[in-house]
Amino acid sequence: MNFHRSVHAELMVGMSMVRRATHDFEVSVSPVQSIKAFRLLAEQAGWSMERHEGSRMVDRFAIIMPMTQTARTLGIRVLDGPLRGLEVTSWSETRGSAGSLNVVSWLIPTGFDNPLTRSLFQHWVSSLPRCPWRWSFGERSKIGYFLPVWKRSRRSFEKLGFSVGKNDWPNVPRDAWVDSESE
Q: Residue 2: inside a domain, yes or no?
């Protein structure tokens, strides 16, 4: 019995626990629209992919106390190509008493510094049906008008090189998505 414990302990020491780096964005588009836009871009590039569904634990605040709930997630994982291992997951959560907030999580093995990743993200944003960092007055009022989410979302897209001014939508990508080098 001690032998099995020591082997297990040696295996656990030899394995490094690596936290997967994800980039989460609060967006105004639904999870289905987010995943569909990504799927179409991956199909254009000719990458094979797999879809996944699951659940995620989220916190919802009821008056002053957080309550843990689960949210249904939709996602796609890229299985081959230059961005093999890229995974996009999206869900919708209710943080307050009403209204839902949509979140898209990107797991990018190469990081956002890769030119292909930046191009993919530019084309993903431009293929969304509406501006992802802008919500209507009604949506903001229902979810919570003074939440820091609105400014944080706009800032995160601005850090990635997007013009987030009032008249800067629709986004026009700087380069073509599918070229002979990325296939």
A: no
Write phi, then psi, for 21 (nearest 5 degrees). -85, 120
Query: Is 56 domain-assigned?
Result: yes
Judged by DSSP in three states, 103 sits in strand
What's the pLDDT tens digit per position in 132-162? 999 999 888 888 877 888 899 999 999 988 9
Domains: count for the chain: 1
Please tell me the distance from the alpha carbon of residue 183 to that of residue 57, in angstroms, as a whole number: 37
Q: For residue range 52-65, list pLDDT tens digits in order.
A: 888 777 766 666 66
DSSP string, 120-143: HHHHHHHHSSS-TT---HHHHHHH
CA distances from 44 to 1, 48, 62, 103, 141 (A): 54, 11, 44, 24, 38
The pTM for the full model equals: 0.80
Q: Across the strands, what pairs with 65?
A: 62
Whether 78 is covered by a domain: the verdict is yes
Most confident of 51-55, 97-101, 125-129: 125-129
For the record, the structure tokens of 31 come out as 């999870």
